[in-house]
Amino acid sequence: MANPPALEPVFDVAHLLSWAQRSASELDRRRVEINQLNVFPVPDADTGSNMAHTMAEAVREAAKLDESASLVEVAEALAVGSMRGARGNSGVVLSQVIRGVAQSAGGGEVTGEVVAEALSSGVDFVERAIVDPVEGTVVTVLLAAADAARDAVGKPLDKVVEAAAVAAREALERTPSQLAALRDAGVVDAGGTGLVILLDELLAEVTGETPREPQAPGAVGESHGSAAHLEIMFMFSGPVDELERTLLDAGGDSLVIARASDTEAKVHVHSVNAGALIEASFALGEVSDLRLEVLPDVEEPATSERLIVAITPPGSLAELYSGAGAATIAPEADEAATVEAVLAAIAKARPREVIFLPNGLMSEAAVAGVEKAAGETVEHVSVLPTVRLVTGIAALAVHDAALPVDVAAETMAEAAEEMRTGVVTHEDNAHASGAPADAVAAACASLLEGGGELISVLYDPVAIPSLDQDLLSTTLGAEVRIYPADSLGAIAEIGVE
């Protein structure tokens, strides 16, 4: 009796969710490894974090759906979450691959043909998104995977996915021969490494087998473009084609535009003149979720007499600290990763003196770890008692680079310790009868009862779209300085001096 034909592996909505979750987990697990390998276009050590964050946001969006959600609905949610959460070139590219999955899943099931179509659509979306593509990056790896999957159409799902995964892995290994920056460092591409992880996890989900553990890739490259001073990311609603021309005309570099439609997109661009690009974008349409990050130099390793390092969330707070002269490090859920990032910033700057502001965003053990490790390579390390972000601002305000480091650090520490602080949380406001701005004013008044002349307020611009500085100053009878602070984690932080 003849054996029955082998059944085509079934890939339904549960498998799609499982693949997304395990991909997010694996990208997060290997985030630090990939970050440490970043060499192109700038060594900003964030490729792994960007891809892990983007995939986590995709999963978070899908998790909002009911258990009865269809495969199409889940795929669309993953696409929306990844686009809105995309960080960096690599995150934007990842979002476009997931967009390809969503577009190809319209039939309600995933087959080998759907996988091939999804990868091909991803290539189309990515090539449209990246204005200045470079061979030897994630685009090259994605193209190889799409070609292999298309050639395997007609075979069972697992064979199509296997063909794509193998081709991607082989293309990744060839990237050093295609890009001088990778070849000089003897490494492969970072974004391509992330894509190989996604395909390996997809193959494991389809076959039920443990994914192949890739060899450590060595230092890894980001996606494309050339070095610039600032990385600018935002959501844009308006004429996307016109925005693309405008950003290029204004000197934008490494431009990536992930389109949700002709009037909505996630934008990633590098520039030495961020102000002009941002103003032009606001003039054309609606800009939201604006983030700026300082990109490191790619020339000679920097040296400095004194380096101030501050732990602060990304966005407007990081801009505020950077403007005051500090190198900013975003806190990670994994404190070990935060410690590594701080030490990497110190190693890159090669200072003789370090002043460190933990701002209450690291445990005592982690802070001690930074102090001990930095002390092995730096002549002087001062850790300031900045227990909140607002006290860090007070410390930076009195820093005098002309003073000896021990005197400067002592002055900064005194400013931080003498500031009386308070926090207005979302929970506090839930129990109050007035608007969030009223709760902030009340908290300021309460802190002023102990005396003071200057009030600093960091506030969440989402919770309080408009906070009137002059009105607060008049009402309280003291000088007030307000700073919008996205990612604050509270309605406001208040400091009185």
UniProtKB/TrEMBL annotation:
SUPFAM superfamilies: DhaL-like. It holds the Pfam family FakA-like_M. One of its GO terms (molecular function) is glycerone kinase activity. Residues 14-204 form the DhaL domain. This is DAK2 domain-containing protein. PANTHER family: DEGV DOMAIN-CONTAINING PROTEIN DR_1986-RELATED, PHOSPHATASE PROTEIN. It comes from the Bacteria. Transmembrane segments: none annotated. One of its GO terms (biological process) is glycerol metabolic process.
